[in-house]
Fold this protein.
Amino acid sequence: MLNKFFPTINKPIPYEGKASKNALAFKYYDRQQLVGSKTIAEHLRFSVAYWHTMMGTGSDMFGGPSFRREWHKSATPIGRAKETMEAAFELFQKLGIEYYCFHDRDIAPEGENFSEACKNLETMVEFAKGLQKETGVKLLWGTANLFSNPIYSQGAATSPNAHVMAHAAAQVKHAIDATKELGGENYVFWGGREGYETLLNTDIKREQQQMARFLHMAVDYKQKIGFTGQFLIEPKPCEPTKHQYDTDAATTLYFLKEYNLIDHFKLNIEANHATLAGHSFEHELAVASAAGKLGSVDANRGDVLLGWDTDQFPTDLYSTTMAMVVVLKQHGLGSGGLNFDAKVRRSSNDPVDLFHAHIGGMDAFAHGLLIAQKIIDDKALSSFIEERYGSFRSGIGAQMMSGKATLEEAEQWLLTAGAPVLQSGRQEMLENIVNSYIFSY
Ligand code: XUL
Ligand code: CO
């Protein structure tokens, strides 16, 4: 086991059960436990987000770094990148997390120019390959950072400058190569700056066409090189731009259909992006799932009192339970997983805080999974839902839904049937049922 950067955690975090008072032990995440036909680890496919966990410094707009990470101390950028990666794999091993996700610029320094950036990325991909082999940790997804470099300040694929769009295209090419080389199971597109600040200088239609073309170019390249990972789009309504084109699941699905991209993409749904869009996490999951397009999840949470992307670790059991109900109903996430796109607070400045944060998130989802499986096994919600729509099984309901009944026929039927009888949605009863499952675990 790697053991250099987190010497105080000298063994993998154990599972001790819910009675344990050990802060550095799992209470619910018993990775080998069977839930239905899969182990808890197979269901949840947790992943560490390299950018927050390894690259985060605790800085915000009002103050500089508050974390002094051992792995950021090397004198050279490539030395720092290598030590950061060693620390990352040590953390994955000690947490027992089997996947990680990165942006190209998280794992390798950008250097002076594009060619240097590409060379650095190749060096770090080789380095990652060695560590993946040594530890068995795999790449859930890779992506390109098309938002930090100032050239992307007015968009990457949707920049008004074709030169910038070409730069982004070249960068994505290398990021897909890196992801393929490392056996990445997915590749994510998050359009951080693909949106606008003001309509006074923006042609929305043209920018959306550019974005679609860019994604088609990526699909063509994927097919050409034989990359078999799933392409994912991650919706977010705003931040950093005022308005982003991939606002939410429904908007993104429409965009993909409109531009003939729907067969090549699924969605990566992030909890805090859902709430920024004015939706609940489970709403976004359910919309994506209903379209057969829920591919992966960025697991985190926002703060109801703050209107921005706080990216906190998920701890809300109600939310993780409802999320896992959606995931179980569609029989899992396939090649996707639960990526902790979450950061410890600025004041949580010790390396051990990274462990507390991930342990909490893993337990919240393991606990949610156990409850969700029981809700599904008992048909605690589904039998009610099925009955609620029961009037469509036969008669006028079946006729309308099969396209047999016209408006006139519906009227004829109504005139003999009389007024409909109001039927309760039983929301409070159902909320109590969910609570009774949560309380009993
Ligand atoms: C930003 C965000 C990104 C994506 C990957 O809000 O969620 O980190 O997950 O680019
Ligand atoms: Co994300």
Remarks:
- Residues 382-440 form one domain.
- The chain has a mean pLDDT of 98.
